[in-house]
Amino acid sequence: MEISYTGLHSFMNCEYSYYLRYIARVPIKEGSASVYGTAIHRTIKMGYDNNLPRDEWAKVFRQEWMILTSKRDIVYQSEGEYLKKFKDGAVMVTDYYDKFVKRHKPPQMLEFFFGRDKAVKIGEHTIIGVFDQIDSKNNVIDYKSGVKPTKNKLDFDLQFTIYSYAYRKLFGKEENGLILRHLGTMKDMVTTRTEQDFELLEEEVEKVSKRLKGKLFVRNLDRNCDTCYFMEHCLGKERQIGRRQYE
Hints:
- It is a single chain.
- By secondary structure, the protein is α/β, with parallel strands linked by helices.
- The protein folds into 2 domains: 2-101, no CATH class; 109-203, no CATH class.
- It has helices at residues 5-13, 15-23, 32-49, 54-71, 81-101, 151-155, 158-171, 195-214, 231-235; strands at residues 2-4, 30-31, 74-75, 109-114, 121-122, 125-134, 139-144, 177-182, 187-191.
- Strands 1, 4, 5, 6, 7, 8 and 9 form a 7-stranded mixed β-sheet that branches.
- β5 (121-122) and β6 (125-134) form a beta hairpin.
- α3 packs antiparallel against α4 and α3 (32-49) packs parallel to α5 (81-101).
- The radius of gyration is 19 Å and the shape is globular.
- Residues 237-247 have low confidence and may be disordered.
């Protein structure tokens, strides 16, 4: 089995949602937050790769935001969200430059893909993913432009367990640190992982593998249904009734 953190997370939240997205491949409308994050990520990479001066970062973001939003079918949360993100993103990447670029050494790697050619195995399974950044001090850094998680949530976040596991398998040494870089506040949150975390990861991957082989995809009806891309495919007209019908 080849699977990413996003796939694992999707399956663990709702097996039927996983089926619709990854097996049936039902087309979805992308959320504005996802596109916004992509534009931010692309701007940061282009800024580093091209050694762009401060004033260029905002220009690049605006270009990326316009390009991405013109090519995709996107769901916005409000009428003014497009313009708000256009403005907020330009400020965010400029703040990023001020805080993390001009005062630090350039990172070793950006948008480093692992899996397939750079295989990371968990048992017989291959985990695929991307390190947003490996900095000059061997810290694995992941950017987050959304809601800042609690420290407790970060410490149990499966995504960072996968990052730590993958780094050690690929480079044969322990990462210096695991960092969530929250772009809304420009603050770094640090977490760590142990062999016990890796054992739990292996157990989860094996559980998901067995469930996938069984080809039974159970609906998990809860509050997450309200924001699920596949609400209409799963519940049909029940969507109009209200959340209490499936709590």
